[in-house]
Write a structure and sequence with these properties.
Layout: E1 7-8, H1 15-26, H2 45-57, H3 61-68, E2 73-78, E3 81-88, E4 96-101, H4 114-119, E5 132-137, H5 157-168, E6 174-178, H6 181-192, E7 197-202, H7 219-235, H8 237-244, H9 246-255, H10 257-270, H11 284-297, H12 300-303, H13 305-311, H14 315-327, E8 333-338, H15 348-352, E9 356-362, H16 370-373, H17 375-386
Parallel strand pairs: 4-5, 4-6, 6-7, 7-8, 8-9
Antiparallel strand pairs: 1-2, 2-3, 3-5
Helix pairs in contact: 2-10, 5-6, 8-13, 9-10, 10-11
Length: 391
């Protein structure tokens, strides 16, 4: 592919990094766990020890790296920040451009299973005319993208994505999908770049809206607010730490692979549709590949900045955001695919307060990491949603 604005990129973690992580794993100083607590107080010590043992003796990063490099990776400088992204062209008569945005605690790897289902639907029981040109960036500070040079960068990512899709890749119009932070970025993208964004597809209502409680909530909305308050009390401490004192936490996790594994794996178990058994949804290889991307790129600290940015934005930022919101995403058609084990379970009327909801799909199974847990269900919903917009 000839494009002087993008540079081919190959994932190649140096042997020094791989040797170092093995030494650190070997020298892990394990903490204490009261017998029988299992996952009640956080990551189960027995499980993380089992995972680390496999990391040492069974996991093959080079094999996973080679599989990741089968995708077409690139980097491009977008507004002075180097953005890493996968760019896979569709196999069909007229592929539709689509950008997929991940959240936390993951990276571009969230979409590894679904990319071929979207670029080559005919090979997965779909129709060739539903093919997409798929673009999957790493958020700034995540994976192989550069670190944000300043605080507040989360509010600019939507502009980066618009520039990447239109000025760098040359698409006049495109669609967008996201979950977690990806849903926030996708909403901002639709709101601020409605001249380019044809339609959006989300797996959740961006969490920031929970601060906008209406005076006339429906019974279903009251149930949502109650659920969210209970969830924040029981599960939300991670977000408060990452929003308030991210640097204190980052130093420990950036220095200990076992600690990093414990911090991340707990989320994959708690937020997925695994019924308490994490390996019914993710293999050890998949979990460790997520962890290794964070470890090799030293991106756990920078990834926390999305939380810090949002929690510590000043009044001027929110005034600007309010003006942009008034200009609005309400005109851009939106679809939602809701998975029952996800963090939040919003009713349709909640989404309709902020979006032009034209499709609402409640899935039979799956959780927060839908693109990994139920890629076929998600891919089919995305295909069906964007079908009318291809013209």
């Amino acid at each position: 592919m000839q494009n002087d604005k993008i540079t081919p990129f190959t994932i190649n973690v140096t042997q020094d990094v791989l040797s170092d992580v093995q030494l650190r794993l070997q020298n892990t100083r394990w903490s204490y766990q009261v017998e029988g607590t299992k996952w009640d107080a956080g990551t189960d010590l027995n499980y993380v020890r089992e995972l680390v043992a496999y990391w040492q003796d069974g996991y093959d990063w080079r094999k996973q790296e080679a599989a990741l490099n089968e995708f077409a990776h690139f980097k491009s400088v977008v507004d002075e920040i180097g953005i890493h992204f996968i760019y896979e062209r569709g196999k069909g008569p007229n592929p539709f451009p689509l950008i997929l945005t991940h959240g936390y605690p993951d990276s571009f790897y969230r979409f590894a299973k679904i990319i071929p289902m979207l670029t080559d639907p005919a090979s997965y029981g779909g129709r060739a005319e539903d093919a997409f040109d798929v673009v999957v960036p790493d958020l700034p500070g995540y994976g192989f993208s550069d670190r944000p040079p300043e605080i507040g960068g989360v509010f600019r990512v939507n502009d980066f994505w618009a520039q990447l899709m239109t000025e760098i890749l040359g698409y006049k119009r495109f669609g967008a999908h996201g979950g977690d932070w990806g849903s926030t970025i996708t909403e901002q993208l639709a709101r601020s770049h409605a001249d380019s964004v044809v339609a959006i597809h989300l797996t959740d209502v961006p969490f920031g809206h929970i601060m906008q409680k209406p005076d006339d909530p429906s019974p279903a909305e009251k149930k949502l607010f109650k659920h969210n308050e209970e969830w924040l009390q029981k599960e939300g401490a991670y977000a408060l730490i990452q929003s308030s004192k991210p640097q204190s936490l980052a130093q420990g996790l950036n220095d200990s692979p076992a600690g990093l594994a414990a911090w991340l794996v707990e989320k994959f178990r708690a937020w997925s549709d695994c019924g308490g058994d994490i390996e019914t949804r993710f293999t050890k290889d998949e979990l460790l590949t997520h962890i290794m991307i964070y470890w090799a790129t030293e991106s756990i600290g920078p990834s926390f900045l999305t939380y810090y940015d949002f929690a510590n934005a000043g009044a001027l930022t929110w005034i600007k955001e309010g003006v942009k919101k008034w200009a609005g995403s309400s005109k851009v058609p939106a679809a939602f695919a809701l998975f029952p084990a996800d963090i939040s379970r919003p009713p349709r009327e909640w989404a309709e307060r902020f979006f032009n909801v034209q499709r609402w799909t409640e899935m039979p199974r799956g959780g927060h990491f839908a693109a990994m847990e139920e890629p076929a269900l998600l891919a089919e919903d995305i295909r069906a949603w964007f079908r009318p917009f291809r013209a």
